[in-house]
């Protein structure tokens, strides 16, 4: 239909475009500007970049980041791939719950894993103490490289698992049977049929893991100790107590965005090249494992699942332990930690988490539905620009977005720093690409003739959108919104930069308590967060009647 | 109260690609009018121009004498039944049907009454509280029909409404659609690629190909007197022969290369004065042959036969190697055995003769058929 007069869609497009220009494009440009301009004489300069690449102290963080990221991604793939294959090909008791546990371990913020592993394998960790009771052994705890890789691989393998598991689900068992009938043995089938077919999903998952791990800052901050990674450097340059340099931090942001941008296009290109359209009429049916196969597969699946859940279990367990000053355990159980957190006078961080999360979800759902509708059903130059803009946040690490927003709205015409609004906006923007992608998929499944029917019956275009499209999209969008909600309440990397005392959230509170070594309170906060996530996840399963999750 | 639709020289362009270049049609008030043609012939494009989902790049469409080119879809007051029904999945049957009434701000109790009335007309009154997922294809079809006609549209448009149903249901529904249309008396434009369906439901049919109307007429006329080779080929089964015109007793006759059949209905003016010995194309439907043991006619050998109850279907080979299909009414006579030699005569009153390129008929119009 032609746009002869300025339509309501045009108005929506322009308003949303303005929102993204103001809160995404402008802050990013400001960061780019700051990274190449001297604050004193306003001259163009590459000093910040030469400073970074000139000193080992700085550039080694980039090397460190790449080392941990590559190692963690490989390990995650090595765990996630067999996990998915075993659960799809063997009947393993309670596999449904294993699946849910894996998703839970994925949804909890990585830095909680880091701090839980410190409780277990840190200097005074439970396991460390056990080990050190053995004669002649002194174990100093896992910090640095090993600790970061441990946390990241355990936290990331679920993503690979979900991608590969999804691909295996779409693989028709006849492919396997055809190979078998042609004389291909069991091992060769995995190597020659299954592996190549899941490779695109494996690569897509791996790159996503790579991007997430590369830009995560909470984990290396807590467990890294002397081992500094790039995001830690950014954080300390921008927020640190000594010698912060906004312009230098800006140049670091530019470097990290360049890297994620490169990875994003790499993934796009690979997805284009290596993708197979598969729909399974008859998906693989899990079979009963026998003998050694059975023992090995059970051990692997349950073992990985247990280790992945260990941080959650530790956190929940320690939250009920009595402590002295939060740091030293007395050995008896109590609800003291909850008295100090949940029932404390100042428990605003709990309230904030829910309030900000809900507000952001409302924004995300409303904007997500509108944007995806505009780009799919009202294609034009403007809406395709909108489509591109809204994908930006996908490649911008949370800390960069936080720094960009804070630099832009700290002073000047619009001052938002320290407000709840700036946190809600950053949460909205961060989650937007995911919601838009899922909404777009939902719209794709609705035949345009449904809307045409409404219009032919006398409804205006906007009425048909409101009365027909929105109600039809809502169940799918809401299911996605629950997943968004879970990721939003566990968000740390931009909130940690944007928060002030009054706008602290659970994740920020946990982080602060850990830094203060008040593990009791941290455990209680973490337990509240974890339980909220689990309950939300159960709600999701109930609503969608679906065990498969795409995040 | 029924309205006419006048389509004058309409043009449809997609970017530089003109898919309909100047098409005209007039649809009479209360008529069940079908656009029939192979997929991609532009029939759905034309339908969507009538309702307004497609823009009109040239020409006009007038309903009841009023040009509607610039009226938005939701103000055109036309009902449409979609190929996939487009039932709103989140609304009950009654709410689906009431949707259009709500847009017209009709009072609630009036709405309820109208919905119940129409659901009785389409015979699904008992399903009014069901959700669409609980309905069969045929039932969804009835909801779609009820929803389109409850708003008392000036025009009812249907886009391949039966193509998603199974064969048995298709026959049942097309009879239902026809009888409901007659009851409501609404001008209806129906799009289909299924000739049998078109013949069964339509008052008149327009056969389309490549965005051009090939012929407009009643089902009987289109079947018996196709205007050109395309129509003859697309509707029903035809055996085509290259023949030439000859003169018998001063009257035109068709010469099949030895076998000559005198004709009474050839309009030679189309070919001009030099019509004698002019090459022509002859279309003979399988039932337009008379089979005889001997006598005059085309020499043929029976290849195989299929007994179909009311008729017998033969596959035969002519002396020149051409294969033809022949249908004879099953009578007391024995079925011709494979390999039997027979003579085939054509029935001169029924066969169709076209110009050599098949572009138009040479048969003088005996009915009120309209040329394209």
Automatic annotation (TrEMBL), chain A:
Keywords in alphabetical order: Cell inner membrane, Cell membrane, Membrane, Transmembrane, Transmembrane helix, Transport
Main location group: membrane
Origin: domain of life: Bacteria
SUPFAM superfamilies: MetI-like
Ranges where the ABC transmembrane type-1 domain occurs: 62-267, 350-540
Pfam family, one: BPD_transp_1
InterPro entries the record matches: MetI-like (IPR000515), MetI-like_sf (IPR035906)
Name of this protein: Iron(III) transport system permease protein
A cellular component term, taken from the record's GO annotations: plasma membrane
From TrEMBL, chain B:
Keyword Nucleotide-binding part of the UniProt annotation: yes
Domain ABC transporter: 5-235
One family name in Pfam for this protein: ABC_tran
Gene3D superfamilies, A to Z: 2.40.50.100, Nucleic acid-binding proteins, P-loop containing nucleotide triphosphate hydrolases
PROSITE patterns in alphabetical order: ABC_TRANSPORTER_1 (PS00211), ABC_TRANSPORTER_2 (PS50893)
Annotated Gene Ontology cellular component terms: ATP-binding cassette (ABC) transporter complex
GO molecular function terms listed in the Swiss-Prot or TrEMBL record: ABC-type transporter activity; ATP binding; ATP hydrolysis activity
ATP-binding found in the keyword field: yes
Transmembrane segments: none
Protein name, as recorded: Iron(III) transport system ATP-binding protein
């Amino acid at each position: 239909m032609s746009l002869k007069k300025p339509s309501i869609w045009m108005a929506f497009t322009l308003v949303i475009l303005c929102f993204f220009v103001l809160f995404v494009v402008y802050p990013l440009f400001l960061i780019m500007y700051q990274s190449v301009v001297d604050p004193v004489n306003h001259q163009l300069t590459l000093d910040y970049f030469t400073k970074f690449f000139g000193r080992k102290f700085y550039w080694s963080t980039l090397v460190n980041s790449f080392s941990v990221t590559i190692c963690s991604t490989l390990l995650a793939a090595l765990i996630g791939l067999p996990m998915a294959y075993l659960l799809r090909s063997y009947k393993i008791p309670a596999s449904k719950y294993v699946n849910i546990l894996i998703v839970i371990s994925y949804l909890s913020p990585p830095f909680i894993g880091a701090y839980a592993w410190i409780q277990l394998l840190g200097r005074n960790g439970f396991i460390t103490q056990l080990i050190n009771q053995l004669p002649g052994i002194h174990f100093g705890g896992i910090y640095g490289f090993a600790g970061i890789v441990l946390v990241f691989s355990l936290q990331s393998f679920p993503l690979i698992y979900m991608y590969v598991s999804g691909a295996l689900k779409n693989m028709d068992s006849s492919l396997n049977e055809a190979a078998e009938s042609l004389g291909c043995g069991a091992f060769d089938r995995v190597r020659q049929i299954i592996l190549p077919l899941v490779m695109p999903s494996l690569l897509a998952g791996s790159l996503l893991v790579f991007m997430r791990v590369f830009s995560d800052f909470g984990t290396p901050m807590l467990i890294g100790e002397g081992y500094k990674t790039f995001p830690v450097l950014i954080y300390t340059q921008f927020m640190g107590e000594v010698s912060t340099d906004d312009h230098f931090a800006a140049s670091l942001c530019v470097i990290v965005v360049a890297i994620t941008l490169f990875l994003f296009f790499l993934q796009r290109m690979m997805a284009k090249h290596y993708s197979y359209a598969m729909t399974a009429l008859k998906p693989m049916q899990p079979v009963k494992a026998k003998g050694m196969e059975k023992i090995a597969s059970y051990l692997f699946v349950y073992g990985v699942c247990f280790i992945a859940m260990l941080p959650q279990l530790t956190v929940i367990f320690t939250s009920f332990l009595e402590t002295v000053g939060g740091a030293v355990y007395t050995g008896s159980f109590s609800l003291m930690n909850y008295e100090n957190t949940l029932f404390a006078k100042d428990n605003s961080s709990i309230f904030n988490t829910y309030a900000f999360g809900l507000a952001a979800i409302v924004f995300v759902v409303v904007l997500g539905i509108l944007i995806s509708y505009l780009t799919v059903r009202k294609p034009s130059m403007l809406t395709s620009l909108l489509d591109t803009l809204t994908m930006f946040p996908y490649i911008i690490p949370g800390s960069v977005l936080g720094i960009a927003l804070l630099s832009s709205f700290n002073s000047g015409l619009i001052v938002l720093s320290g407000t709840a609004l700036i946190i809600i906006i950053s949460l909205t923007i961060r989650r937007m690409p995911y919601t838009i992608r899922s909404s777009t998929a939902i719209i794709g499944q609705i035949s345009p003739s449904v809307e045409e029917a409404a219009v032919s019956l006398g409804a205006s275009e906007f009425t048909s959108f409101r009365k027909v499209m929105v109600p039809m999209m809502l169940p799918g969008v809401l299911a996605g919104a629950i997943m968004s909600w879970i990721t939003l309440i566990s968000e740390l990397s931009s909130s940690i930069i944007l928060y002030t005392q009054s706008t602290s959230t659970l994740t920020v509170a946990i982080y602060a308590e850990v830094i203060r070594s008040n593990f009791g309170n941290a455990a209680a906060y973490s337990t509240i967060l974890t339980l909220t996530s689990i309950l939300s996840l159960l709600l999701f399963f109930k609503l969608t009647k679906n065990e498969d999750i795409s995040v | 109260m029924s309205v006419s639709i006048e389509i004058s020289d309409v043009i449809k362009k997609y970017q530089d690609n003109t898919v309909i270049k100047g098409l005209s049609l007039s649809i009479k008030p209360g008529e069940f009018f079908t656009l029939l043609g192979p997929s991609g012939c532009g029939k759905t494009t034309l339908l969507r121009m009538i309702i307004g989902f497609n823009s009109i790049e040239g020409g006009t469409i007038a309903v009841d004498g009023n040009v509607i080119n610039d009226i938005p879809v939701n103000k055109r007051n036309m009902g449409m039944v979609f190929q996939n029904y487009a039932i709103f999945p989140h609304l009950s049957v009654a709410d689906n049907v009431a949707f259009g009434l709500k847009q017209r701000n009709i009072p609630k109790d009036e709405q309820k009454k109208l919905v119940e009335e129409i659901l009785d007309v389409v015979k699904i009154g008992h399903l009014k509280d069901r959700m669409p997922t609980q309905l069969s294809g045929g039932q969804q079809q009835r909801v779609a029909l009820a929803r389109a006609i409850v708003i008392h549209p000036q025009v009812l448009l249907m886009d391949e409404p039966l193509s998603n149903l199974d064969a048995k249901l298709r026959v049942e529904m097309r009879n239902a659609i026809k009888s409901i249309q007659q009851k409501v008396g609404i001008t209806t434009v129906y799009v289909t690629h299924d000739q049998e369906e078109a013949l069964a439901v339509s008052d008149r049919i327009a056969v389309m190909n490549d965005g051009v109307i090939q012929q407009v007429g009643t089902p009987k006329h289109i079947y018996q007197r196709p205007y050109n080779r395309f129509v003859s080929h697309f509707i029903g089964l035809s055996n085509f022969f290259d023949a030439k015109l000859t003169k018998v007793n001063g009257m035109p006759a068709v010469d099949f290369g030895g076998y000559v059949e005198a004709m009474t209905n050839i309009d030679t003016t189309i070919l001009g004065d030099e019509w004698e010995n002019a090459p022509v194309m002859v279309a003979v439907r399988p039932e337009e042959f008379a089979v005889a043991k001997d006598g005059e006619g085309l020499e043929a050998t029976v290849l195989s036969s299929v007994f179909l109850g009311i008729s017998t279907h033969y596959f035969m080979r002519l002396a020149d190697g051409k294969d033809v299909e022949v249908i004879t009414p099953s009578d007391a006579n024995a079925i011709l055995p494979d390999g039997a030699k027979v003579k085939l005569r054509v029935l001169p009153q029924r066969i169709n003769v076209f110009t050599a390129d098949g572009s138009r008929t040479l048969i003088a119009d005996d009915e009120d058929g309209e040329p394209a």
